[in-house]
């Protein structure tokens, strides 16, 4: 985009008048002129030893080595030409982002954002911008990056980025909405330089089942009953499905019945609950099992919880002291 000034000198070193003197310029690729690619300038006559000077201004519009040839001709087959090579340098911008393409809700994600100048001249007043989707929250960044809540974007500024150099910043975000999210990275600099990319991130919820087991009466006397309360919670951000609860009782305890959001079956020393179709995020459900002490001693009850998200059963134990009154 810069102007290229050519100083042109046309001289007549001969002993006679040169007539019909005409300068011709074929503007090469990489340069341009408002009048087009074929330029002519008529000088007319040049007396012996006379010199004419003029200027030609072209605009550089593409980087690279350019060969410019200027010709002059006159009556009587007079002709001459001059060739000059010049290198047009120009900055360039290229942005990139590296980081996870899949993330769980409420789990921080860190990205490396870079801006490079693969051009042949320094890029000035460089601005790097990351536009965040509404489903992602800004957490932190480095290199004096500034988050603007009005535009939901993060900005970094660089006075100059030399040719062949690059800069990298770190950005930490927090996914707060499930679904497909898109971060947009944009680089800008003087002379209208611009480059932008988009990075897609799939955000998923995560079910997190936890449970507790507690007997409401311990110790108990042989022949007395107690109740085991099993609280199952989903502390995650995704609904869990087919939640299954089972409890195994030792010989010293006889399971009597189960109560909960699904039907219970007692088979010998094991109590099974029918699968719970779903357990939504941040919710809790309670299962209860009543049992009777039939033998003195320390009795150990094992409870297992399993679901579609928790493929491997999780086991917890509860001790109950059964005593014989003498």
Q: Might you state the CATH topology name of the largest domain? A: Immunoglobulin-like
Shape: rod-shaped
User: What is the helical fraction, as a range of percent?
Assistant: under 10%
Oligomeric category: single chain
Query: Could you state the order of secondary-structure elements as H and E?
Result: EEEEEEEEEEEEEEEEEEEEEEEEEEEE
Tally the beta strands. Answer: 28
**CATH class of the largest domain, please?**
Mainly Beta
Summed up, the helix count is: 0
Q: What features would you describe in this structure?
A:
With 326 residues, the chain is mainly beta. It has 3 domains: 3-88, Immunoglobulins (Immunoglobulin-like, Sandwich); 94-204, Immunoglobulins (Immunoglobulin-like), CATH 2.60.40.10; 209-323, Immunoglobulins (Immunoglobulin-like, Sandwich), CATH 2.60.40. The chain is built from no helices and 28 strands. The chain is rod-shaped, with a radius of gyration of 41 Å. The mean pLDDT is 94.
Properties at a glance:
mainly beta, Immunoglobulin-like, 3 domains, 7-stranded mixed beta sheet, 6-stranded mixed beta sheet, 0% helix, rod-shaped
Summarize the structure in short:
The chain is an all-beta fold and 326 residues long. The chain has no helices and 28 strands.
Which secondary structure elements does this structure contain, and how are they paired or packed?
Layout: E1 3-11, E2 18-26, E3 31-32, E4 38-46, E5 51-60, E6 64-74, E7 78-88, E8 94-98, E9 102-104, E10 109-116, E11 123-131, E12 136-141, E13 146-148, E14 153-161, E15 166-175, E16 179-189, E17 193-204, E18 209-215, E19 220-221, E20 225-234, E21 240-248, E22 253-259, E23 264-267, E24 270-273, E25 276-279, E26 283-293, E27 297-306, E28 314-323
Parallel strand pairs: 9-17, 19-28
Antiparallel strand pairs: 1-5, 2-4, 2-6, 3-5, 6-7, 8-10, 10-15, 11-14, 11-16, 12-15, 13-14, 16-17, 18-20, 20-26, 21-24, 21-25, 21-27, 22-26, 23-24, 27-28
């Amino acid at each position: 985009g810069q102007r290229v000034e050519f100083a042109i000198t046309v001289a007549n070193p001969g002993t006679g008048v040169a007539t019909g003197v005409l300068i011709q310029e074929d503007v090469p690729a990489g340069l341009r002129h408002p009048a087009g690619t074929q330029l002519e300038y008529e000088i007319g006559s040049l007396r012996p030893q006379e010199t004419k000077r003029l200027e030609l201004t072209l605009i550089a519009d593409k980087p690279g080595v350019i060969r410019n040839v200027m010709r002059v001709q006159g009556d009587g087959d007079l002709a001459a030409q001059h060739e000059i090579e010049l290198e047009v340098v120009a900055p360039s911008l290229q942005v990139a982002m590296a980081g996870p393409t899949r993330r769980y809700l409420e789990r921080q994600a860190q990205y490396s954002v870079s801006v490079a100048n693969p051009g042949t001249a320094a890029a000035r007043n460089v601005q790097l911008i990351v536009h965040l989707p509404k489903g992602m929250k800004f957490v932190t960044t480095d290199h004096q990056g500034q988050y603007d809540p009005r535009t939901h974007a993060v900005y970094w500024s660089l006075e100059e980025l030399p040719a062949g150099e690059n800069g990298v910043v770190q950005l930490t975000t927090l996914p707060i909405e499930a679904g497909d999210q898109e971060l947009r990275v944009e680089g800008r600099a003087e002379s209208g330089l611009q480059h932008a990319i988009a990075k897609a991130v799939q955000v998923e919820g995560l079910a997190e089942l936890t449970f507790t087991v507690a007997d409401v009466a311990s110790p108990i006397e042989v022949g007395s009953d107690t109740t085991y309360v099993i609280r199952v919670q989903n502390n995650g951000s995704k609904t869990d499905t087919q939640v299954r609860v089972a409890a195994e009782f030792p010989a010293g305890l006889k399971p009597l019945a189960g109560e909960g959001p699904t039907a219970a079956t007692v088979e010998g020393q094991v109590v099974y609950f029918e699968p719970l179709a779903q357990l939504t995020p941040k919710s809790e459900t309670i299962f209860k099992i009543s049992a009777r002490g039939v033998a003195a001693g320390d009795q150990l009850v094992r409870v297992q919880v399993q679901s579609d998200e928790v493929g491997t059963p999780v086991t917890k134990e509860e001790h109950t002291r059964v005593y014989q009154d003498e």
